[in-house]
Write a structure and sequence with these properties.
The protein contains ten helices and nine strands. The protein folds into two domains: 134 residues, Orthogonal Bundle (Globin-like); 154 residues, Heat Shock Protein 90. Helix content is 60%, strand content 13%. The N and C termini lie far apart (74 Å).
């Protein structure tokens, strides 16, 4: 019987399957998948075959669903499940043929049916769990965003009422609360606009003049710098440069980097914005004076909901969304930590190709 054949040749089947998994181009094999995943999947197959002969199809489906959920909980992707099951099936078929094993056509049919059910149920459960997790995450994120917006609007309203009633001066601490609240609202809106455009896939690439982008950003940056009591300097570009990008997404990503710099730079410190052409690339630097990063934290900085430093306001999404926005524009963000001084965030984008001039020659 097929179950006995698999049990008797378990080690040979594991070795054959590992060879197939290791040589696969995509999804690429992981060490865990090779060491423990292949035996797990083979044992799952044996259990499925045993269920096929002793239980109802409904019970089999429930069992396959539980096994699928267990595999996903252990970190296996849907693609790994599909391909690993297929590799095991090929290994069983090839070895049975090579050894001329007495396995009937009906048993091979049952093998294919069990594999098909196992894959379908595992992937279905994976998608269900993923959708549930995503939905919960979206609800939580929306709730936190609404809470942040309400707090800032409420603070601005109360501060404005105090100023209008004459109980607080227009240039005192209460006015500072209003200014910071409005600044926080701007940051949340910028972040949300980038996130919505990137996640919805509605980005639109246009030719962007980098010097004009920096000039527009600098106006808002000066206001933000005053709120945080830091100086802000924009270095003019030495030469004209253009990039192909979604202007709103790129501007929002850059604004997020600046807001992060203003937030963590100590009062009296400096934030600088500078752009240059480097070969066939355009590099935009945002340098702050945050004092540098704690050891080992540079790799976490662009993760969602990660915050560093004493200022814990906000959702911890600004840098994460900036990276998503820049990548959607075809670029990357690099980070240089300057211990004891601060950080330099660099947006690196391809220089736009020169447009042909009316007479047929290439031009800027």
């Amino acid at each position: 019987m097929l179950i006995e054949f698999i049990g008797a040749h378990r080690e040979e089947l594991i070795a054959r399957t590992r060879t197939k998994v290791a040589s696969r181009l995509a999804p690429s094999a992981t060490e865990v998948e090779l060491v423990s995943g292949v035996p797990l999947f083979l044992d799952q197959l044996i259990e499925t075959l045993r269920d096929a002969g002793t239980t109802s199809s409904q019970a089999m489906d429930r069992s396959a669903t539980l096994r699928g959920a267990a595999m996903m909980d252990q970190g296996y992707s849907a693609a790994q499940v599909v391909h690993d099951y297929g590799d095991i099936c090929q290994a069983v078929t090839e070895l049975a043929t090579a050894l001329d094993a007495p396995i009937t056509a009906g048993e091979f049919h049952m093998l294919n049916l069990c594999l098909d059910n196992g894959i379908a149920e595992a992937v279905t459960e994976y998608v269900r769990l993923q959708d549930r997790s995503r939905a919960a995450g979206e609800v939580e994120r929306s709730g936190v965003l609404a809470h942040e917006l309400r707090n800032r609007v409420s603070a601005a309203q109360m501060g404005f009422q105090a100023i209008r009633s004459g109980r607080a001066p227009t240039n005192g601490s209460v006015a500072g609360i209003v200014s910071r609240s409005l600044s926080g609202l701007t940051a949340l809106i910028n972040r949300s606009l980038v996130e919505v455009r990137v996640d919805s896939g509605i980005t639109r690439s246009v030719r962007v003049e980098v010097s004009e982008l920096l000039q527009d950003i600098s106006v808002e940056g000066l206001l933000e710098a005053n709120v945080h009591r830091v100086s802000f300097n924009v270095t003019p570009m030495a030469r004209r440069a253009q990039v192909d990008a979604d202007q709103e997404v790129l501007a929002g990503a850059l604004a997020n980097l600046l807001q992060n710099a203003f937030k963590f730079t100590r009062p009296g410190g400096h934030v600088t914005l500078e752009a240059r052409v480097a070969g066939e690339r355009v590099e935009i630097d945002v340098a702050d004076e945050c004092g540098g990063l704690p050891p080992g934290k540079a790799g976490e900085l662009f993760e969602a909901f990660k915050q560093h430093g004493p200022n814990r306001t906000g959702l911890g999404l600004g840098l994460f969304i900036s990276r998503k926005g820049v990548e959607a524009c075809g670029g990357v963000i690099r980070l240089k930590d300057l211990p004891g001084t601060g950080c330099v965030f660099t947006i690196d984008l391809p220089l736009a190709a020169a447009l042909p001039s009316p007479n047929g020659e290439s031009g800027a």
